[in-house]
Amino acid sequence: MDFSQPASRLQTWKLTLAYDGTEFRGWQVQPGETTIQGELQAALGRITGESPLPQGSGRTDAGVHALAQVASFALQAPIPPGNLLRALNRTLPPSIRALEARTAPSAFHARHSAVAKTYEYRVFRESICPPFLARYVHACPWPMDVEALQRSARLFEGEHDFSSFAATDPEPASRRRCGGGAGFAAASET
């Protein structure tokens, strides 16, 4: 080891991803299963020789897609953000795309820094759902009372504590209020 060069310090990264989750067993690494987190970790390893475990702003379930899932990780490699973005998109499977890569303050954490999450559910209401939409919508060809659905949805508006639906958080002081769900996912931070 050459001690004449100063040791590189870890740089925190913020990555925004979009993915088709159909072929994945969700976000979180699972032994013997293909996951988004596992694919991203492997891609980072192939690009940088490092193997950080990316932290997501939330965990999507098997088959769930994301339009703007935020992940954070730390790297020692001095790589420009544009180069990392291009390398990831050449290395990741075509069903996962890095939309943005940028360095972030060392305190940034995709889950703990999130201030909002948006979940989108799509319902296809015609009689025959086209096959190229089938994995991205819920096909419902039956009549719907949209006005009644909108009235019902208003009952859920506002700020709510969904902590009883979550696993025990070892760091409750750092947790911010966020809703949960499936479908398309996106997150934002301060």
Molecular shape: globular
Please describe the biggest sheet, giving its number of strands, its sense, and whether it closes into a barrel: 6 strands, mixed
Number of helices: 3
How helical, in percent, are the residues? 10-25%
CATH architecture of the domain at 11-104: 2-Layer Sandwich
Taking all residues together, what is the mean pLDDT? 82
Contiguous uncertain segments of 5+ residues: 1-5, 174-190
Reported by name, the CATH topology of the domain at 11-104 is Alpha-Beta Plaits
Total strands: 8
Q: What report would you give on this structure?
A:
The chain has 190 residues and is an alpha/beta fold. The chain has a domain at 11-104: Pseudouridine synthase I, catalytic domain, N-terminal subdomain (Alpha-Beta Plaits, 2-Layer Sandwich). 17% of the residues lie in helices and 25% in strands. The protein contains 3 helices and 8 strands, in the order βαββαββββαβ. Strands 1, 2, 3, 4, 5 and 8 form a 6-stranded mixed beta sheet that branches. α1 (36-48) packs across α2 (81-91).
Summarize this structure briefly:
The chain is an alpha/beta fold and 190 residues long.
Layout of strands and helices, then pairs:
Elements (H helix, E strand, L loop, with lengths): L10 E9 L16 H13 L6 E2 L8 E11 L5 H11 L4 E9 L9 E7 L2 E2 L13 E2 L6 H9 L29 E6 L1
Parallel strand pairs: 3-8, 6-7
Antiparallel strand pairs: 1-3, 1-4, 2-3, 5-8
Helix pairs in contact: 1-2
Task: For the structure shown, list the relevant keywords.
3 helices; two-stranded parallel sheet; Alpha-Beta Plaits; disordered N terminus; alpha/beta; 190 residues
